[in-house]
Design goal:
Layout lengths: L5 E5 L6 H14 L7 E5 L2 H11 L4 E5 L16 H6 L4 E4 L2 H6 L4 H13 L3 E6 L3 H5 L3 H13 L4 H4 L3 E4 L13 H18 L2 H6 L1 E5 L4 H8 L6 E4 L6 H8 L2
Parallel strand pairs: 1-2, 1-8, 2-3, 3-4, 4-5, 5-6, 6-7, 7-8
Helix pairs in contact: 1-2, 1-12, 5-7, 7-9, 11-12
The chain binds 2-phosphoglycolic acid.
């Protein structure tokens, strides 16, 4: 089963509109004609529409970093799937560890957001991963299983086809510490086998599982060459066009 890799940039709360425009101007020529992988930029909410407009017709897609599960309503500060789709974005991050840690997101809210994303035909990138204390206590597998089970609750194999999962060990995010390719591969296998148990083998072998956590041009190739690593979710090293283009072209 060949899975097209996804190389996604998570810009978090970085870049002004002018900085985002300067990035796209520099980045597009660096990845011109690159169709081997799916390339996606996830700017912060106010920049999604502008970046989508700048990338229109190119080989680079745009995604949001979060959404609300309701179709619409009195939810000040929130964004719906239809609004994301309406500005030309195609992907959305769900349950990033910073959202879980600082904004109270849980496996239950991740599940609601995932359902809203699939219903809108956006491509979800569901983020999971253990914190350092959990890894040190030998709980990594239990945590990953719980997060995947929670995210996929009441979702059928047919509905699950577009789902992308990003395994991001929390201790590796923004710290410069990367999981070794072998550690990442082991975790990805746990995730894939959990998807097989919950849904079916065909869905599990089609689902794309990205690695995230201090991915850089220097470690991208060894991570990407693992059999169950189907791409990368990149924070810090995605803020610079040259650095991110090197990861795309690992
Ligand atoms: P990092 O962030 O690449 O800066 O570690 C990854 C992420 O948070 O998605």
């Amino acid at each position: 089963m060949s899975r097209k890799k996804v190389i996604a940039a998570n810009w978090k709360m970085y870049k002004t509109p002018a900085e985002a425009a300067a990035f796209t101007t520099a980045f597009l020529p660096l990845v011109a004609g690159h169709t081997r992988d799916e390339i996606v930029l996830h700017p912060s909410p106010l920049l999604v529409a502008g970046v989508a407009w700048q990338l229109k017709g190119s080989n680079v897609a745009v995604g949001a970093q979060n959404l609300h599960w309701a179709a619409e309503g009195a939810y000040t500060g929130e964004t719906s799937a239809a609004q994301i789709l309406g500005v030309g974005a195609t992907h959305v991050l769900i349950g990033h560890s910073e959202r879980r840690q600082y904004f109270g997101e849980t496996d239950e809210t991740v599940n609601k957001k995932l359902k809203a994303t699939l219903a809108a035909k956006l491509i979800p990138i569901v983020c999971i991963g253990e914190v350092l204390a959990e890894r040190e206590a030998g709980q990594t597998e239990t945590v990953l299983r719980r997060q995947v089970e929670g995210a996929l609750a009441d979702i059928t194999p047919a509905e699950a086809a577009p789902i992308v999962i990003a395994y991001e060990p929390v201790w590796a995010i923004g710290t410069g510490k990367t999981a070794t390719p072998e550690m990442a591969q082991e975790a990805h296998l746990v995730v894939r086998s959990t998807v097989a148990e919950l849904l079916d083998d065909a869905t599990a072998s089609a689902v794309r599982i990205l690695y995230g956590g201090s991915v850089k041009p220097e470690n991208a190739t060894s991570l990407m060459s693992q059999p169950d690593i189907d791409g990368a979710l990149v924070g810090g090293a995605s803020l610079d066009a040259t650095s991110f283009s090197k990861i795309v072209k690992y």
